[in-house]
Amino acid sequence: MKRFYLTTAIPYMNEKLHLGQVYEFILADVMTRFYRMMGYDVFFLTGSDEHGQKIFKTAAAKGISQKKYVDGMVADMQRILKLYCISNDAFIRTTDPGHEKIVQNIFNKMNDNGDIYKSTYEGWYCVPCETFFQDSQLIDKKCPQCSRPAEWIKEDNYFFRLSRYEDRLMKHIEQNPDFVIPEIRKNEFIGFLKQGLKDFSISRTTVKWGIQIPFDPEQYSYVWIDALINYISALGYSTENDALFKKYWPAQQQHVGKDILKFHTIIWPALLMSIGVPLPEHVVIHGWIMKGDEKLSKSKGITLDPDEMSARYGIDAIRYFFTREISFGLDGSFTAEAMQKRYNAELSNDYGNLVSRTLAMIDKYRNGVIPAHAGQDEEGGKLKQLWETTKKEAVSAITSWNYSECLVRIWEFVNAANKFIEDARPWEVAKDDSGKNRKKLDSILYSLAESIRLSTLLVFPFMPTVSRRIFSQLGIDKDPGDILLEDYGVWGAFEGNTRTGRREILFPRIENEKDKD
Ligand SMILES: [Zn+2]
After folding, report:
1. Among the four 28, 144, 325, 426, which has the fewest Cβ within 10 Å?
2. Tens digits of per-residue pLDDT, 263-313?
3. Neighbours of 248 (CB within 10 A)
4. What is the CA(51)–ligand 1 centre distance, in A?
5. What is the Å distance from ligand 1's center to 272 Cα?
6. 126 alpha carbon to ligand 1 midpoint, in Å?
7. Whole-number mean pLDDT of the chain?
């Protein structure tokens, strides 16, 4: 069986998850659900980044231990993952003792092969961003990322010979042009390489909440090095229990936001080269979620809270909106107006109505029993043909990160089924429901039920909960998550003759959303 390893960045546990982070989980989750459906052996990892000065200070200010503080934050993160139906197979915490040991193993390896040396670090540092800056990068002595004041620090640290890896990274991108996805981010990465890579400090003496450097216990790992290693420590790299590492590494897709591009396309690969581990196939970089045209910012009160959003729209609609609305890789914007438009037109009308009209007719004309599949010469022959193209194009779109395009293809099929109702006019056929006409009506109703089942299979990775409800309304007792596209994603694989479940409105229309902001 082909394996598929996908990771997300691990959020820093200093504050509650915001919707921009949830967006990354949604992208990753849709992708992994598709690969599972295509028969891959999938391992989907996420986790939490828990060390560093910022967390040390926040916990101290609250008067609780660092561990207790992060435990609470992690519990809340896991609650939100569950709320949004994120189907990760594992969750790594950087405070796991196993992870800490592996980080130390890696420091030893890098040291043994001469990639680490001691020197004096002096420069600007932003504590909340855990990032160093050069003088020229600061804006009014403030962090260019978060606009908070940067601190001047000076200490003896261990440095990593990043400069050694400039040529190898350039060669790697030449030989693997799709190493960085999408193209605009790849160009940014090449731009960084062309500026030249400088060695950088990978240890601290001032930050005690972290992982000790094995060959110098006065020093602690720079939190970013600690965090990046999660992608292989979760698989047991460099330990006796490294079966997962042997099986799944290198990762097929590492999903991250554009703000941490440099860490994942330069520092992480250089670190892997240093310890002789192959690089991931693709670093997949998404844009930011904006509210209207403003960047999310807690301090400025521009927020999209995952709990409020899910209470307002339901998680399926949110998962749909962000994958449909945004061109992958670019920044995307949320407005209540755009949400209402898509929700009512595409979810409530196109998809919801197809299901409710079809089930209502099956109730009315066949007492709630979906007619059996009759085989050849169906009324829905055109839909059957279209399905084969739809399936191919949807899979091809998603495997090239065109989330929105994938949904467009699925919706073309949904709307072809809606048009089929108008063309076949089942209410006319039902006026004389006997003999040939009875067969015809059976075939129309079956074709509609089958179209709903098949489109719902492709919808499932995007909207898992509503898909399960539709399956149960069709009287199918399988979970769409257990289904392989090549077996059950074929027209006619559903035999019919099932009693439909209780009907319910899938997407109740929403009104006046704009006024609620
Ligand atoms: Zn900052």
Report:
1. 144
2. 999 999 999 999 999 999 999 999 999 999 999 887 788 889 999 999 999
3. 22
4. 16
5. 26
6. 5
7. 95
